Amino acid sequence: MLSPKTYDVLLNRLNLGVIVVNSAFEVEFINHFIETQCQVNYSDSVQQPLFSLFSDLPEAWLKRKIQSVFVLGTPAFSNWEQRRHVFKMRHTRPVTTQSDYMVQNLSFLPLSQNSEVVQQVAIIIEDVTDTCFYQERLQDTLKTLEHTSQTDALTGIANRRFFEERFLYEFARAKKQQLELSLMMFDMDRFKSINDFYGHQAGDYILQEAAQLITQQMSRLDVFARYGGEEFCLILPQKNIMQAHQFAESVRQKIYAHDFVFDNRRIQTSISVGIAQLDEDSESFESLVTQADIALYQSKREGRNRTSCYKK
């Protein structure tokens, strides 16, 4: 059997914080980890009230945790994802986290001597700063990947994949709740000629600038996406075809009046727009896309730089 001195040596060599308290919340033991991290010493800490020795503790929460162990005689735990730290200790890891303090997992263990009655509770403090840091990095990376998978790289607006997922949702919601819903599709007029005459960089600039102009006019409910090439689409929830037409005309006029200047040269451009509206005969969101596309090509046939609404 190990001697008490050997136990003390073992506890002081652990890379874990150990604090033992009695039922009056008085400290009966701290190990070397606590002395070092909290800048206290053993002789001054023993028999001191826990909440006086560590004044920044969440007292009400921590008392409930410790009391549950005394009453139930079973361990309790606190995970860093629930509470990042309980004891304020500066972390020593060469990493950047959202906190200057050590991120911790805590275990509360019942201690008894030859009796079923819990006489002390050992608070075990584990430094999980690295785990937290890499988990945060992973979450940030996943968010970035998700955003990238939904965003058009050139214009910064939603891509076709996101448009189709979101339109499927908005279509089903509007059908179920009997809400108005319109779809606006447009493309840049004579865009191939712009690329051929001014160069593809100028064409990219036109798409980026037009996307920014339209984004500024959208409501918070609207969803704007690049459908492909120079073609774009806008989901307009809670707008009927007349409201959608008014919005489309505002956008069309703004694009036509805007000074697109690339490499010190002004480029005149316009858009042709097609609009379709959800009604009781609409069977799928694909049918609405087809209708808006038909209306768009009607605008093209009638001379471009105009807005057309789909008519059955």
Explain what you see.
Helices cover about 45% and strands about 20% of the residues. A hairpin with an 8-residue loop joins β4 (about 105-110) and β5. The protein has two domains: about 5-135, 2-Layer Sandwich (Beta-Lactamase), CATH 3.30.450; about 150-310, Alpha-Beta Plaits (2-Layer Sandwich), CATH 3.30.70. With about 300 residues, it is α+β, with helices and mostly antiparallel strands. It is elongated, with a radius of gyration of 33 Å.
Blueprint of the fold:
Layout: H1 4-13, E1 17-22, E2 27-30, H2 32-38, H3 42-45, H4 50-53, H5 59-72, E3 76-78, E4 104-111, E5 120-127, H6 129-150, H7 160-177, E6 181-188, H8 191-198, H9 200-215, E7 223-228, E8 231-237, H10 241-257, E9 260-262, E10 265-267, E11 271-277, H11 285-301, E12 307-309
Parallel strand pairs: 11-12
Antiparallel strand pairs: 1-2, 1-5, 3-4, 4-5, 6-8, 6-11, 7-8, 9-10
Helix pairs in contact: 8-9
